[in-house]
Amino acid sequence: MHHIATARLQLRPLHASDAPFMLKLLNEPAFIANIGDKNAHDLLGALRYIEEGPQASYRKHGHGLLLVERLDDGAPVGICGLVKRDGLAYPDIGYAFLEQYWGCGYASEAALAAIEHGREQLGHAVVVGITAPHNQASIRVLEKIGLFYQGRIELPGIDGDSCYFVPPALLKDQPA
Q1: pLDDT at 41 over 90
Q2: Is domain 4-170 annotated with CATH 3.40.630.30?
Q3: 9 pLDDT exceeds 50?
Q4: pLDDT of 174 higher than 50
Q5: What is the mean predicted confidence (pLDDT) over 23-36?
Q6: CB count, 10 Å around CB of 42?
Q7: Average pLDDT over residues 121-148
Q8: CA gap 106, 33 in Å, rounded
Q9: Helix 106-122 to helix 136-144 angle, to the nearest 10 degrees?
Q10: Which of these, 21, 13, 6, lies nearest to 71 by C-alpha position?
Q11: Ranges of each domain in the chain
Q12: What does R_g of the chain's alpha carbons equal in angstroms?
């Protein structure tokens, strides 16, 4: 797995040593409300999430969620990366950031870098996005990075329907 750098951030693979940060992120009220409860309520649960989620994805697909750190001080601020989801033909851009870092532009900066890396290094010409219909912050990020709302879809393993966002090349013709 490669490291990805932007002007302010570094994206790198998650390691077992990141379990304390992941425990905090996975248990923030906004994470649970917008993404779901990952049953990581202690360090062992956070470690299990890292091993069975991102690290398993790295091995199987060559990509997955990466830890996002600030370059200036090394502080972990969130996770971001390409995710292969059942029911989607293309990788999905996934991200989650500690609430204290919302509004800093980190999500869009990291997402654009992950998408560019996926296109240039991994051959993924198309990356899509999904989010819960009530997650306005995530909707704004998806729009900011150039994806367009295409409708709602149901995906295996996700409760309820999701808003589906696509790049311009995949937009369906809209009736006049």
Answers
A1: yes
A2: yes
A3: yes
A4: no
A5: 95
A6: 12
A7: 96
A8: 20
A9: 50
A10: 6
A11: 4-170
A12: 15
Query: CA 37 to CA 115: how far, in whole Å?
Result: 26
Provide the terminal-to-terminal Cα distance of the chain, rounded to the nearest Å. 45
Amino acid at 76: P
Q: Which of 39, 15, 44, 14 is closest to 27 using CA atoms?
A: 39
- Kindly give, in sequence order, each residue whose CB lies less than 8 Å from that of residue 5, ignoring residues fewer than 6 positions away: 11, 71, 113
Give the pLDDT band (50/70/90) at residue 159.
Answer: confident
What is the pTM assigned to this prediction?
0.94
The pLDDT tens digits for 141-151 are 999 999 999 99
